[in-house]
Every structure is written in structure tokens, then in C-alpha cells.
Amino acid sequence: MSLNWREIDRILDELALADALIQDIRQPRHFQLVLELYRRGQSFQVLFSLANPHCRLHRLSRRLSATGKPQRFVSFLRAHVRGGRILAASQVGAERVVRLEVRRSSAAGPTGAGEPGAEGPEGQTVILWARLWAGAANLIATDAHGHILDALYRRPKRGEVSGGQYQPPAPRDEDSVREAREVRELPGPGDFNERVERHYFALEEQ
Known about the structure:
17% of the residues lie in helices and 29% in strands. It is of the alpha+beta class.
């Protein structure tokens, strides 16, 4: 079972990603993306896993080794997001879609006219969307206007290809969600991120 929207809210609240610096991006497996972050003197990792049915995000305490050379999407993120700062992190209503707004200054790397997401001399803004829907999960990078720059999984039928226009789902009020899911009481010590990490890795190891 994937995370429900209330659990995603809880995880984002604990992570408090705003103002975190993206130091690196890794892709240990084809369905995983790891952001290596730094904030207030501390380094930490955040995992996005698009594996069905264990779709999720959470803080990562272990080191996941990458196999092979960086894939296309990771290479894109390293070129346009690494060195940037997360300005805001939120969920789109109760939709299990996470939005990260990242701004990278021109000093962090090459920018300029014609570069994807370019925003002028101050730098560039890239929006990283994580759709955590089991069976239809994806990671999509857009500019500030929703133009798709790249996606982990290119899906032409959904328009999720470079040059397409990403339309996030209209946010639903929690009262309109039929299944009023609650945050699960996962066993063990630690905050919710720690318990989610243990729970899902145990399921995958089984």
C-alpha cells in the first residue's frame, strides 16, 4: 500500500524542506530518486520511490548504492537543479502529488538565454513534481509556467514528454475525498519518516 495523502502531509511537515540546498541527485534504481540535501548545518537524504505498490517519499538514513551510469533524467536534474535551493515544498490538496519549487542562482552553474527554466540573471526556477500514485507514478520537471523540461518516465499518451504542458490535478478539499484515510500507527521508535522507512524497506526485503 502506498502512502496516503495524510501521511504525505505528515512526512513533508517533518522534513520541512524549505531552504534546503540540493547538493546532489542520485538514482540507485530505475524507480528511485535520492536528493542529497543540506540545511542549517546538517546533511540529509530524501528518497522518492515510484515502486508499485510501495510508492512513497521519506527521509533516508541508509546509503543506497547506484548501479551503472546516471540515467537521462538524473543527468538533467544535475545540470539544472543541483546547487539549487528548495523554496517551497507542498502537496497538491489531497492528491498525493508533491510540488518542490527549486531556485538555482546563476553562480551555481551555467545558465543563460534558452536554457530550460531560465529566469534571467538571478538564476532559474524548476518545479519538480512527484506524482505518488501507485501504477501511474512519475517525477516531472517543469519551468515556472508548467512547460515540461523532462520526466523520469516519458509517457506521450499523458503528454508527459519534453515540450509538453503539465497539468497538476485540481486540488480537492479533504471533505470531498471519499476515503478519509488516517495516518497509520506504524510500529517502532522515531518520527514518522523513520517508521515509514523501516516499514517499506522491510516489505521490499520480504
